[in-house]
Design a protein that fits this description.
Order of helices and strands: EHHHEHHEHHEHHEEHHHEEHEEHEHEEEH
Shape: globular
Largest sheet: 8 strands, parallel, barrel
CATH architecture: Alpha-Beta Barrel
Radius of gyration: 21 Å
Helix content: 25-40%
Structural class: alpha/beta
Strand order of the largest sheet: 1-2-3-4-5-7-11-12
CATH superfamily: Glycosidases
Number of helices: 16
CATH class: Alpha Beta
Distance between the termini: 24 Å
């Protein structure tokens, strides 16, 4: 028992958080390039503040990030040294189609990723590619209003055709959209949506969701036609909502909030809108523009596997006093109350390894498709010790406990799991805060929140620990 022999151990990054070189070699401006560091970050990310250009009053972490664009060979060599079997990354849409819907793709962008994928294969690393990881072309936001418009579907499929055709012999694992459910919470980051005064936000969100779901279904079908034998998955930001008490009202509130996350995956994995979603939209006065052809498209474009990120579970209550008095600190994307049974990270993210096993069982019970844990990690303020090394036993402990929970889900519960790619295997810009000091990596990058630093890479203790875990296929989780 234990992890299967073909288990895909590895790490994960996103183009907008690591590549930098945002205006190099013909790359167009993307939504994530315009999300600033600082107090305006969440307002822009939620679509509440319009920022389609970069100004001199803000700093934009994605512009340089960790400059992986120029250092990818060094970084992939380090991933190879760790023993990665898989590297999850994303393609920047605007490197391929700078305006988002160009008739001809940008050769410099195509060549960059081709070289990167070949570098991965040199070390025996399978690329797992996210097609759209919070990466709406600004030109299409100006032209169509982002995913508010069904015209985005054709633009997305034009982009998909370009990359499927070019990389059909190099990539066999794909994800259509990163954390697709984030559209409901960070609408600009997730779908390039900016809300204008007087607009019906709920209507816009669900119509945009429908457009993304149609695009995903058609991309799955296209990938299977162009790349026979490939596997295409969906992805959600997962984490069970626990009821704060056993009051039936709290139980229902947790179930209802979980449905916000499962809504997208229900459609992508099953091929149709669930009855509860239709009733919920009806009660909210949401009337999605949907044709019979749309329903046929969704039925025919179901995914091959369900990928998900898991950082923590959440806790909720139907009692507004509890929600106010026990609210999780910080500007959290998912509103949650503090679970008194769990410890928390420096950023207030509660640590719940058993929650991973619970989430995996829930997802498999619901969909009966193979799972892929494509993000899991601990954001921490790592420092270089007096010996010139980075000792991060807290990260090792976090990963050990979560890998053990994943092992239990596989061994004791029989859940089929394709792989595990630890988030931020190399330090990168935090999506939620825009910080560098909130580090996830097993490889340290010399850069601070103000953008200062040499960008030099350094192995942390967790680098050597994870190398041993991979070498033993998850059997040896002891300290280094």
């Amino acid at each position: 028992m234990g992890f299967p022999q073909n288990f895909l151990w590895g790490g994960a990054t996103a183009a907008n958080q690591c590549e930098g070189a945002y205006n190099v070699d013909g790359r167009g401006l993307s939504s994530v390039d315009t999300i600033p560091f600082g107090p305006d970050r969440m307002k822009v990310a939620r679509g509440e503040m319009k920022m389609l250009e970069c100004d001199c009053d803000h700093t934009y972490p994605a512009h340089e990030a960790i400059d992986m664009y120029h250092r990818y060979k060094e970084d992939i060599r380090l991933f190879g040294e760790m023993g990665f079997k898989c590297y999850r990354l994303s393609i920047a849409w605007t490197r391929i189609l700078p305006e988002g819907d160009d008739d001809e793709p940008n050769e410099a962008g195509l060549a960059f990723y081709e070289d990167l994928f070949r570098e991965c294969h040199k070390y025996g690393i399978e690329p797992l590619v996210t097609i759209d990881h919070f990466d709406t072309p600004v030109a299409l936001i100006k032209k169509y209003g982002g995913w508010k418009s069904p015209k985005m579907i054709d633009a997305y499929l034009k982009y998909c055709r370009a990359i499927f055709t070019r990389y059909k012999d190099l990539v066999k694992y794909w994800i259509t959209f990163n954390e697709i459910n984030m559209l409901l919470h960070m609408s600009y980051m997730g779908a390039g949506i900016i809300f204008e005064p007087g607009e019906d936000k709920i209507q816009i969100k669900y119509q945009a969701a429908h457009h993304e779901l149609l695009a995903s279904a058609q991309a799955v079908k296209m990938a299977h036609e162009i790349i026979p034998g490939c596997m295409v998955g969906c992805m959600l930001a997962a984490g069970q909502f626990y009821p704060y008490t056993c009051a039936p009202e709290d139980i229902w509130d947790g179930l209802d909030k979980d449905r916000d996350n499962y809504f997208f995956i229900d459609v992508q994995a099953r091929g149709a809108y669930p009855v509860w979603a239709r009733k919920r939209m009806e009660r909210a006065g949401v009337a999605i523009v949907m044709t019979e052809d749309d329903e046929k498209t969704l039925r025919e474009g179901t995914v091959d596997f369900v990928a998900f990120s898991y950082y923590n579970s959440r806790c909720t209550s139907a009692d507004p006093d509890i929600l106010e008095k026990h609210a999780r600190p910080g500007n959290a994307v998912f509103k949650s109350v503090v679970n008194p049974y769990l410890e928390s990270s420096e950023w207030g993210w509660q640590i719940d390894p058993l929650g991973l096993r619970i989430t995996m069982n829930t997802l498999y019970d619901r969909y009966q498709k193979p799972l892929f844990v494509v993000e899991n990690g601990l954001g921490a303020n790592d420092t270089i010790g007096e010996d010139g090394k980075i000792h991060d036993p807290y990260r090792i402990d976090f990963m050990r406990r979560h890998i053990k929970a994943m092992d239990d889900a596989i061994t004791l519960d029989g859940i089929p799991v394709m792989g595990y790619t630890a988030w931020g295997c190399i330090d990168l810009v935090s999506a939620s805060t825009g910080e560098m000091k909130k580090r996830y990596g097993m490889i340290y990058v010399d850069k601070d929140n103000e953008g200062r630093g040499s960008l030099e890479r350094m192995k942390k203790d967790s680098f050597y620990w994870y190398k041993k875990v991979i070498a033993t296929n998850g059997e040896d989780l002891s300290d280094i």
